[in-house]
Amino acid sequence: MDYDHLTYEQDGHVVTLTYDRPEQHNAINREMAEELHHAWQRFRDDDDAFVLVITGAGETTFSAGWDLQDASEIGEIDDWEAFRRAIYDLPGPCGYTRRVDVFKPIIAAVNGYAFAAGLETALLADIRIGAENAEFGALERRWNIVGGDGLTARLPLVVGFARAMELIITGRRIDVHEAERIGLVNEVVPRGQALPRAQALAQEIAALPQGAMRADKETVVMGVGRTLEERLRLEAETVVSMFMRRDSHTIGAGAFKRGERPEWPHHGL
What we know:
alpha/beta; 6-stranded mixed β-sheet; 4-stranded mixed β-sheet
């Protein structure tokens, strides 16, 4: 697929996916959402792609969310059953936001406004790097639009129940320093430096053995909402997977024993 509203660039094992509609503040319309469905699965299924960096074009906006001009053109629903099926089957109205099947590391370089579905997009990342001019908020409150791309599912996991409820109910905008204080942002950098910092971190992560990292992320993600016993059982299953990789754990353990740096012929996979 050719992208009109995205750029997809790969440097070694790091992919940078840029939401590229700067004239619309990188807001997501239906055509862009289809492109995002393709791009995220492309990264997921590419054996040579290890880490994904997501960002928005320009220095002032990560993503302003759903393109309401495009949304205003969606007419009345005349076939409810077909619409219901489409909603449940869709990977997400504003991107690949309803799937939980990307267990490779994801970093968001938030370079400005991350509002509504833009906030939900940032929540797809495992690590969020925020520029000093980054702002966050569930601004869909103003237009009587629900958080349909993971806001109510992911935000409480990231910042806790009470903080999430306040942001969801009030639609209050917060700056990057408050976002860092409540755990929404991992690191604050100067304006214009979010993407370089995220890409540098992504290269560091890509240099690590990938197998155990992905297994542990999958365990964390798939353990959400389960009992402690169920989560520990999931963790035990990752131990089993450790013995089934092409690059056995014995490579690392043996190198440690010899005081050497391990070499991973298959990147730890």
